[in-house]
Specification:
The chain is α+β, with helices and mostly antiparallel strands and 203 residues long. It is 23% helix and 28% strand.
């Protein structure tokens, strides 16, 4: 008896794998995922900025310039007094007798010039006290609603530092200054730690 071999199933044709297409789909899907993650991360850091930007570098103060916390700057043009008027002008200033003698000697030697800047409290209130410092010399002024005489010694190019001594009244202490160009309102002060730094142009 002859044993016949079992018939083998005919091989079915298998489609060849399309490597370029499948690889392209994988790369396209991966690229889309990366793009989505990038956009998402950018949006997250844009809306949830958790890093603190570095603080700007603070330049050291100049030798003759006092440290100025919370300073607001402005520029004023002031008229120079003639040296002949210096003695009478200094006699009405808030400087001590020793400071007056030093200033007068510097004016006579041509090392200092005197300028005047009458000041008032723009609100009309009476009693706000300020310190006015320039070239290391300070004079204390009690403001009123009227302009009062203020003589300031300037070396060459001067900066005037104005600091409140008494707590500024509400809503703010605005000092009016009479300059060479007319009345000028200086930056307002609302707290004791604020300062006004004036860059002086002498005419």
């Amino acid at each position: 008896m002859t044993v016949q071999p079992e018939p083998r199933p005919e091989p079915r044709p298998q489609p060849l794998p399309s490597e370029p297409a499948s690889r392209g789909r994988a790369l396209w899907g991966g690229g889309g995922l990366i793009a989505a993650l990038t956009v998402g991360a950018g949006a997250f850091f844009y809306t949830h900025n958790t890093t603190t930007p570095p603080a700007p570098a603070i330049a050291p103060p100049a030798q003759n310039t006092p440290a100025v916390p919370a300073a607001q700057t402005a520029a004023v043009q002031l008229s120079m007094l003639s040296p002949a008027k210096a003695p009478s002008a200094l006699a009405k200033s808030g400087f001590s007798p020793a400071d007056r003698a030093r200033i007068l000697a510097a004016v006579k030697d041509g090392k200092m010039r005197l300028v005047e800047m009458p000041v008032l409290d723009a609100s009309g209130a009476v009693g706000q006290t300020i310190d006015v410092t320039v070239s290391g010399l300070t004079q204390r002024v009690v403001l009123t609603g009227k302009f009062q005489h203020l003589v300031i010694p300037i070396v060459e190019a001067g900066q005037i530092l104005i600091a409140p001594v008494s707590m500024p009244h509400a809503p703010a202490l605005t000092i009016g200054a009479l300059t060479a160009l007319g009345p000028q309102a200086l930056p307002a002060l609302t707290t004791l730690d604020q300062r006004v730094l004036l860059n002086v142009i002498v005419q």
